Amino acid sequence: MKIETAQVEIIAPRDQLNFLHQHTVEMARPLTPLEAWFAMTRDPLPLLQTAFRIRDAVSARFGVARIGGLSGREPGFVQAGDRLDFFTVETIDDTRLSLTARDRHLDTMSCLTVRGRTLTLTSSVKVHNWFGRLYMLPVAPAHRVIVRRMMARLT
């Protein structure tokens, strides 16, 4: 699969990434990237919340911050620098929403872009140490499945 990164933000230069995934859907109706994010995270997938609890329990033993998962909370106003659960909003406008999470084991960015009814989510990760590499072994394949399921809510 060819991954297009010209119109999206990624966490590091492409040749420094340890994970890069992109998924695109045609939404049932036009939404801004923020509206799409809220629609995808409004009712977090039950198994995903369990996975976040396990992740927090294991990762905390290695000095990695707990993230708590997705709350489904939808603040009325969002701007760069705000937090959406464990993500920091880097960029927000009518066509792009970029969210980052940075910790000692890895940095990650999720960039949602909208063109008409087409939504693309690009996820990029740069790992920093052996724990980050180990962490990504189960997360990389699971992430692809989770993203597809969450984005299917919009079709």
What fraction of residues sit in β-strands? 25-35%
User: Which regions have little confidence, pLDDT < 50, spanning 5+ residues?
Assistant: none
By CATH, the architecture of the domain at 19-46 and 76-152 is named 2-Layer Sandwich
CATH class of the domain at 19-46 and 76-152: Alpha Beta
Q: Count every beta strand, where a strand is a DSSP E run of 2 or more residues.
A: 6
Q: Categorize the overall geometry.
A: globular
Tell me the radius of gyration.
Answer: 15 Å
Largest sheet: 6 strands, antiparallel
Let me know the CATH homologous superfamily of the domain at 19-46 and 76-152. START domain
Which structural traits does this protein have?
155 residues, alpha+beta, Alpha-D-Glucose-1,6-Bisphosphate, Chain A, domain 4, six-stranded antiparallel β-sheet, 3 helices, DUF2867 domain-containing protein, DUF2867
